[in-house]
Amino acid sequence: MDKSIKIYQTPAVLAESFAAELVLIITDLTKKGRTVTIALSGGSTPELLFSVLADRYYNSAVWEHVHFFWGDERCVPPVSNESNYGLAKRTLFDKIGIPSKNIHRILGENDPSDESLRYSSEITSFTQEKNGLPAFDIVLLGLGEDGHTASIFPGYLDLLTSEKICEVAVNPYSGQKRITITGRIINNAASVFFLATGKKKSVIVENIFDKKPASLNYPASFIVPLNGQLQWYLDNDAASLLRD
Ligand code: 6PG
Q1: From ligand 1's centre to the CA of 142, what distance in Å?
Q2: pLDDT tens, position by position, 113-141
Q3: Residue 216 gets which letter from DSSP?
Q4: In a 3-state reduction of DSSP, which class is residue 27?
């Protein structure tokens, strides 16, 4: 099996294991006196991870050294049930002691073009620079059933090579506007983790790892960190079509 893949029985076991790995990475970086920058993924998959982090690590000293960002956000108010920030606030931030200055949400309620520029500046201000670009320590990514990741959808592969840090994107199925970090920023991170669970992701996962022709349309196929770590965390269902 590809060494970049870790497979777990269930989403709950995956979340427990990844939470431990995440806290270990953060702890190691903070021991070097570092502030740690993490870009969170959206959608529903990370909810279990957030709950495990809140339950198991709510009193960890690491949080004061972590600055949370998002890889993408829907252009909705923070109180919307579609807000990626809102999910993280309810399930994680409200339950751990983290200074509010460490939370860098995308202002989904603002004009998308203005916010894309503003957020790009915020990312630049708080992240390290590598290869002349902002470099997150950690980027978490989900995987859409169409192979999208962050808010880079099939048909918008130009967002993978955009010169910008953030771009205004559109969910092609709903027309909903989004703000997303671009592919070059994702690939400039020190560590990129895909978390994908459920049978619905199994075909996409198989197409990507078997390098099927269809995968050339998937933005997720083009996430190849320049000189960083790429790790896929899958549950049995999402990995069910993979061959050893
Ligand atoms: C979003 C995302 C998106 C998500 C995938 C998987 O804002 O929706 O960031 O890329 O990670 O669509 O979504 P699920 O976890 O809900 O399957």
Answers
A1: 5
A2: 999 999 999 999 999 999 999 999 999 99
A3: G
A4: helix
Rounded distance from Cα 199 to ligand 1 centre (Å) = 15
d(Cα 68, Cα 129) in Å, to the nearest integer?
17
Distance 151 CA to ligand 1 centre (A): 8
CA distance readout (Å), 197 to 109, 149, 191, 203, 238 = 30, 14, 20, 12, 5
Q: Residue 243 carries which DSSP code?
A: -
Give the number of C-alpha atoms closer than 13 A to the C-alpha of residue 78, restricted to the C-beta side.
Answer: 11
Q: Whole-model pTM above 0.70?
A: yes
What residues line ligand 1, using a CB cutoff of 6 Å? Answer: 41-45, 72, 84, 142-144, 148-151
Question: What is the best residue among 14, 38, 45, 192 to mutate for testing ligand 1's pocket, by most ligand atoms within 8 Å of CB?
Answer: 45
Match 């702890």 to its residue by tokens: 27
